[in-house]
Amino acid sequence: MSFRSRQSSGFTLVEILVAVAVFALLGVASSVTVQQMIRTKEQSSEKLQQLQELQRAMLIMEQDIRGMVKRTNPTGRLLFVDVEQIAFIRNGWLNPGAALPRSQLQPVIYTLRDNQLIRQHFYFPDVSLSAEPQERILLDKVSEMRMRFYLKPEPNADAQVRQRGGAWVESWNFPNALPHAIELTLETETWGRIERVFLINGGELKEKSILVGPDPNNPGTNQGGAAPPQTEGGS
Asked: Which of 2, 82, 141, 166 is 20 to 30 A distant from 234 in Cα terms?
């Protein structure tokens, strides 16, 4: 074999450099693609977590507002509304067999503080205004909270409620009444404007009690034993 044929069987320096450059470009492209996939996954996980937090917050608020009862809270009102704050008492706080040292009625406060939607609650409905509540942050990066209230005219409502019934009102000035629905508007950095309407289940307080007195369907008989009705929380 001649020297010329042996020389032509190898790779030139230019060919090697071209091959190295091609592999380097492929490596860079692969690295960029992998990094983009990682960032996309992280962003998706973050958005999914934020969505779950939003859904959880809305579910908690719906359960609380639907369970609102006609029971005065520590402010002396059935429903206390202030700037970016709402307070009421809800029923249905499960306590099977009264095993836990608390009532089934739960005073609840929703307030906006430091761009955070915070839920506060007490263990008993009759507490002093100086008592420290339990707090839980429901949503972050909330810049504003607004509420409207729907009044439904009823025959047994007071004159003020009947006069303004059947319409949405911006403020709640009825200490002895509950609305039939609450419209909540949140201005958030993550989701923009969120609007939800929560219905209230009649606002009737169902407590464990024994009714005393004549049966309206059968005068002269009693509906229960001799014990008077008892209100949880000492009311």
From this structure: 82
> How far is Cα 162 from Cα 152, in angstroms, rounded to an integer?
8
Helices (H), 130-182: 159-164
Contact yes or no for 107/127 (Cβ under 8 A): yes
Q: Is residue 78 part of a domain?
A: yes
| Dihedral sign computed on CA atoms, order 97, 102, 105, 109 | negative
Q: How confident is the model at residue 208 (pLDDT cuts 50, 70, 90)?
A: very low
Closest alpha carbon to 102 in 73, 121, 124: 124
Residue 222 maps to a domain: no
For the chain, how many structural domains are there in total?
A: 1
Q: What is the C-alpha to C-alpha distance for residues 58 and 56, in angstroms, rounded to an integer?
A: 6
Q: Which H or E element spans position 139?
A: strand 134-140
pLDDT tens readout for residues 120-175: 988 888 877 677 888 999 999 999 999 999 987 665 555 655 555 567 888 898 88
What contacts 24+ positions apart, CB below 8 Å, involve 122-125? Answer: 122/74, 124/233, 124/234, 125/71, 125/73, 125/89, 125/232, 125/233, 125/234, 125/235
Closest among 155, 157, 182 to 168, alpha carbons compared: 182
Q: What is the pTM of this model?
A: 0.65
Residue 78, classed as helix, strand or coil, is: coil
Range of the domain at 75: 59-94+103-199
Residue 33 CA to residue 23 CA, distance in Å, equals 15
